[in-house]
Amino acid sequence: GAVIGILGGGQLGRMLSMAAARLGLRCHVFEPGANPPAAQVADRLTTAGYDDHAALRDFAASVDVITYEFENIPTDALDLLEKLRPIRPGREALRVSQDRLTEKTFLRDLGLATAPYADVTDAASLQRAIDAIGRPAILKTRRFGYDGKGQVRLDPDSDPAAALADMAGAPAVLEGFVRFDREISVIAARGLTGEVACFDPGENVHKDGILHTTTVPAQLRPGLRSDAILLAARILGALDYVGVMGVELFVTDAGLVVNEIAPRVHNSGHWTQNGCVVDQFEQHIRAVAGWPLGNGARHADVVMENLIGDDMDRVADLARDPDVALHLYGKTETRPGRKMGHANRVIHR
Ligand code: ATP
Ligand code: MG
Ligand code: MG
């Protein structure tokens, strides 16, 4: 059988490895950090850094295809790996999504709505951006942000200089504040031969900048469900994408606004593990391994809740709940804000 190489051994790499194992495929995970959650399930683990080119070469030689659980893989490592094995999703998806400015420009050029945005490199460009976009607005680092990190809100009376200082010299974008009714996401998959399958949109609620719950079905007015799915399919087609992508959307009076895209399996798609015959992890493995996509139709209503930090204290209670499927990541150290697991509450219709 084929061997899937996975860059990144966090919970996403772990759940990808589990899905691959179910399909009889083996996984080799590459992860520089200690005690990666994927270690318990991957067939093979390399704990070298991305600057260790010999380790990267050995990794590539041992696998048939390379995929990843995070988008910030160093460019040098990608340059090396892509000469040796196919990387799926491909470089274009990574190039576009590693940088918020590139990503927004790509989406706008596709004709999709985004928040108004402008490039910010210094005090003068920040002032120009504020003049053009207005406030409230959000200043975000262009790269490496997640879980709301590297973001600061600019209210009409706040000090732009302080916000800029928070960026610590990193290139940033200013985004106009979108007045949304709700946030949804589409988890979309595209196979090697171009077929597209989207999971039902889920509705996302954040707490302290971190995803708290995803509920399916999302409450959407007529038309927006298909708009969301068609829009996601367009993004995948434009990138000649292979694999699963998370597309985060704001629902506004004027329609859907794209917040951001993630070229990988996505936290807001964890509900699919208990709401679909084939979940996002299997769908991703199928796509990158060149299999046909599976049936991602939703057969139940689900509320996915992230278990973050001390939420782990509730695990014993959740384990007794007959409607809850628990997914724990095997992390030994609990820290505030750390994603430890998730609970899928399944409501059979
Ligand atoms: P993730 O963990 O999803 O990758 P992130 O750090 O990349 O998060 P964003 O998705 O850009 O952050 O923003 C986090 C949340 O902040 C959004 O889900 C939304 O609730 C809010 N937000 C971000 N940008 C805007 C905006 N332009 N207008 C209104 N709200 C916003
Ligand atoms: Mg993000
Ligand atoms: Mg986000």
Automatic annotation (TrEMBL):
Enzyme class: ligase
Signal peptide region: none
Pfam families membership: ATP-grasp, PurK_C, RS_preATP-grasp-like
GO function terms (MF aspect): 5-(carboxyamino)imidazole ribonucleotide synthase activity; ATP binding; metal ion binding; phosphoribosylaminoimidazole carboxylase activity
Enzyme Commission designation: 6.3.4.18
Residues noted as binding ATP in the record, renumbered to the chain: 100, 140, 145-151, 175-178, 183, 206, 259-260
Domain of life according to the entry: Bacteria
GO cellular component assignments: cytosol
Pathway the protein takes part in: Purine metabolism; IMP biosynthesis via de novo pathway; 5-amino-1-(5-phospho-D-ribosyl)imidazole-4-carboxylate from 5-amino-1-(5-phospho-D-ribosyl)imidazole (N5-CAIR route): step 1/2
The family this protein is said to belong to: Belongs to the PurK/PurT family.
Physiological role: Catalyzes the ATP-dependent conversion of 5-aminoimidazole ribonucleotide (AIR) and HCO(3)- to N5-carboxyaminoimidazole ribonucleotide (N5-CAIR).
Protein name in UniProt: N5-carboxyaminoimidazole ribonucleotide synthase
GN (gene name): purK
